[in-house]
Amino acid sequence: MNPIPQRKIIIRRSSRQLELYDGNRLLASYPCAVGKNATPTPIGSYAVATKIMNPGGAFGSRWLGLSLPDYGIHGTNKPSSIGTQASLGCIRMHNHQVEALYNQVGVGTPVIITE
C-alpha cells in the first residue's frame, strides 16, 4: 500500500520561489519576496499554524502564520516587491496567488524554508 501524499510548501530564498507539493508532485510555483539581508527569512522546517482571511494593511488579503511566531506567508499592498528581498522576514506573495495557496493548504501543512 502506498502512503497518502501530503501537501507541503517549500520556499527557496535564493530564487525567491514558493512551491506547493502534494507528495513529490509539484502543484504550483509562485514568485515571492523574502527578508532583506538585515532581516532574513529564517531557514528551517515549520508548519502553517494559523490562517486569517483579510488581515488588512501590509498583509494583503491572506495570512498564513507559521509555527515560528511573528512570521508568515501573506499577501501584500506592495506588489512591486515580489521577487525581491524586501520584507522583515515574512514571505510576501501577490494577493491572488496567496488566495489560491490559502485554499489548498490547512493548519499543520509543513513549510520548509531553504537557502
From TrEMBL:
The lineage of its organism: Bacteria, Bacillati, Bacillota, Clostridia, Eubacteriales. Residues 7-114 form the L,D-TPase catalytic domain. The active site is at 74 (proton donor/acceptor), 90 (nucleophile). Keywords: Cell shape, Cell wall biogenesis/degradation, Glycosyltransferase, Hydrolase, Peptidoglycan synthesis, Transferase. The keyword Membrane does not apply. Pathway: Cell wall biogenesis; peptidoglycan biosynthesis. It holds the Pfam family YkuD. It comes from Desulfitobacterium dichloroeliminans (strain LMG P-21439 / DCA1). Belongs to the YkuD family. Gene3D superfamilies: L,D-transpeptidase catalytic domain-like. It comes from the Bacteria. This is L,D-TPase catalytic domain-containing protein. Signal peptide: none annotated. GO terms for molecular function: glycosyltransferase activity; peptidoglycan L,D-transpeptidase activity. GO terms for cellular component: extracellular region. One of its GO terms (biological process) is cell wall organization. CDD domains: YkuD_like.
